[in-house]
Amino acid sequence: MSEQETPIFAIEKIYIKDLSVEVPNAPQIFLERESPKVSIQLQTNAQGIGEGVFEVTLTTTVTSKLEEKTVFLVEVGQAGIFRVQNVPSENMEPLLSIACPNILFPYAREVVSDAVTRAGFAPVLLQPVNFEALYMSRLQQQEAAKEASGETTIQ
Length: 155
Hints:
The protein is α+β, with helices and mostly antiparallel strands. 31% of the residues lie in helices and 39% in strands. The chain contains two helices and four strands; from the N terminus they run ββββαα. The chain is globular.
């Protein structure tokens, strides 16, 4: 393989693209003694921003509720700019959907924990996420949706 054909995968920059903290029922919510229920949602988005350069954003939304009352809502858009060159096209989507979110997740976890603590609550510690399993699950759902709609793929 010549130097020109050598696959390149590099982190150019990691940054917080968006951060939102809401405590809509403060200060009364701090008087509650019950344990709230916490839900976590993850979403990834990748877009090309130049020749072989991609921005990947991992959006993490953490919502804490007591019955119907929102205790807090934290949303973090942790982003990174990645240089990806000389990688076969069939490997691009898994790279951007699995490898990049794996790199971004520890940063998002830290920002969520810090934001929740600064809002006056006990830190929320996000458990590790298997982005490969999420990716495979999404592919299966897309295939099932195609089959259900009667679309056929000709290869």
